């Protein structure tokens, strides 16, 4: 049985289109939202947009905060206003991301010790963290106001 293009797209997370000059357009199938990526300057790109490895590192932070938000909602507290900085550190032989450093800044919500533990546990159990190679160093700092 042949699937139509529309049926194939419904079964995918994203569609990718190479635009040339080391840039790609990634479209989220369900919403139609898109991002453009570019190769980094240290790998023949212009660095005009997120690189694929930038997105990988950023996705780790996004996933952690999303899981923290779910846990906070389920536990009756808020992490609204939480911010993070993500740093990707490359390694070589083979070229790969060697470390992702995430610094999380939480607003002054007077978190209890139990709430802080819930938040910290979420960083370890987020699906992106669990999907990455164990050799990738994940350094996470929690700054509670």
Structural notes for this entry:
It is a single chain. The protein is an alpha+beta fold and 145 residues long. The protein folds into two domains: 5-43; 52-144, 2-Layer Sandwich (GMP Synthetase, Chain A, domain 3). Helices cover 33% and strands 32% of the residues. It is built from four helices and six strands; from the N terminus they run H-E-E-E-H-E-E-H-H-E. It has helices at 5-10, 52-75, 113-125, 127-131, and strands at residues 14-20, 23-28, 34-38, 83-91, 96-106, 137-144. The strands form two sheets. Strands 1-2-3 form a three-stranded antiparallel sheet, with no helix packed on it. The protein has a three-stranded mixed sheet with strand order 4-5-6, covered by helices on one side. Helix 2 (52-75) packs antiparallel against helix 3.
Fold topology:
Layout: H1 5-10, E1 14-20, E2 23-28, E3 34-38, H2 52-75, E4 83-91, E5 96-106, H3 113-125, H4 127-131, E6 137-144
Parallel strand pairs: 5-6
Antiparallel strand pairs: 1-2, 2-3, 4-5
Key terms:
3-stranded antiparallel β-sheet, GMP Synthetase, Chain A, domain 3, 145 residues, alpha+beta, 6 strands, 3-stranded mixed β-sheet, 2 domains, 4 helices
Quickly name the level 1 CATH class of the largest domain.
Answer: Alpha Beta
Instruction: Name the strands of the widest sheet in spatial order.
Output: 1-2-3
Element pattern in H and E: HEEEHEEHHE
Share of residues in strands: 25-35%
CATH architecture of the largest domain: 2-Layer Sandwich
**Given the helix and strand composition, which structural class is it?**
alpha+beta
Gross morphology is globular
Number of helices: 4
Beta strands, count: 6
- Report helical residue fraction: 25-40%
